[in-house]
Amino acid sequence: MKNITHHNLRVRSVFGVIFFACFYFLPLMTMAQNVDLFKQQDEQDKKDAKETTDIVTSTFKTTRIVNSQSIENTGAGILDVKISHRFGLVNTGAYNFYGLDQATMRLGLDYGISNRLEVGIGRSTYNKEFDGFYKFRILRQSTGRAAMPISLSLSSDAVWRTIKDQPTAYAINSSDHFNFTNQLIIARKFGDYFSIQFVPTMVHYNIVPTKATPNDLYSVGTGFRIRLSKRVNFTGEYYYQVTKFQGTYDAMSLGFDIETGGHVFQFFFTNSTGINESSFITQTNSQWGNGGIHLGFNISRVFTVVKHNH
Fold first, then answer.
1. Can you give the pLDDT at residue 187?
2. Is the Cα torsion angle 276, 281, 282, 286 positive or negative in sign?
3. pLDDT tens, 132-165?
4. Residue of 82, 175, 92 whose CA lies nearest to 121
5. Among residues of the chain, what percentage have pLDDT more than 70?
6. Element (H or E) spanning 290, and its range?
7. Which has the minimum average pLDDT: 89-103, 104-118, 180-194, 237-251?
8. Can you say whether the dihedral through the CA atoms of 45, 47, 53, 58 is positive or negative?
């Protein structure tokens, strides 16, 4: 009887140890298995992300930062109507109501031929200029399988100046009223809150003021966007002139982009009177330091002309 009792105790002890081991180690094994499953899922998600390509969008909120072309294009089949307005110089004083009595304007129509190609035309009151341009997206910033660290675009525009010429000792041909701008736009978006671009630029004039002035003028532009809220961005641009006309200064603008429904409203200060590329880059004749700045705004309103199936 005593042997049977000891045997039962040993059996109970063995079962107790087994039960304790199962109770203690089984959750740890299950937890380890879950961790392995989560790790495998994360690795699979990373693998899937590498097998797809995601295009980075909204580097800037519209196709122009202030005056300068941005890396953005008007979408395929979309017509973008732009109204650009610059008041007079702030330092003209109270008599001109600090520039509000004067104004320079441009009306522009930009259209997206495709998601990579945009064309546009415009008319400015500054020197009564007509302009036309195209912008082609060469590279698009992306992540994943075909990762690309930057966006790259080529932009070219032509300007026809129609203001009457002053009397000169030499004949001026109609072709002398044209000038051309070529730009390479290099941009990158860093997360949702900051974007930057660099713009090597060449402006060609068919006629220049003096023989000592080169027909080809070179500059380097830069622009940025800082997101302040879902609908408001702080923006700026600056163009450093490598070669320039005598008496001109580098163009600089600072402002805000405000998204309101179907359009983008841009409010800013700039020292440039001209609005198209050749005018604001090479013909800016006032400075920020002495109040030589203009209050201005741009309004961009888009319309769908042709619907594209994506």
1. 98
2. positive
3. 999 999 999 999 988 999 999 999 999 999 988 7
4. 82
5. 82
6. none
7. 89-103
8. positive
State CA 219 to chain mean position distance: 19
The answer for residues whose C-beta is within 8 angstroms of residue 119's C-beta and 6 or more apart is: 110, 111, 113, 132, 133, 134, 135
The per-residue pLDDT for 265 is 94
Model confidence over 12-25: pLDDT tens digits? 554 555 545 555 55
- Which two structure tokens, joined as six digits, stand for 65? 């930062």
- Which DSSP state fits 182? E
**Distance between CA atoms of 108 and 129, rounded to whole angstroms?**
12
What dihedral angle (degrees, nearest 10) is formed by the CA atoms of 267, 268, 272, 276?
Answer: -40
Cα R_g (the chain), whole angstroms: 31
Helix ranges (DSSP H) in the chain:
2-51, 277-282
Structure tokens at 127: 């020197």
Q: Would you mind telling me the total number of residues written for the chain in this entry? A: 310
Long-range contacts from 255-261, C-beta under 8 angstroms, 24+ separation: 255/66, 255/296, 256/228, 256/232, 257/61, 257/62, 257/225, 257/232, 257/233, 258/231, 258/232, 259/61, 259/231, 259/232, 260/231
* CA dist., res. 273 & res. 87, Å (int): 8
Report how far residue 257's alpha carbon sits from residue 226's, in angstroms, rounded to the nearest whole number: 10
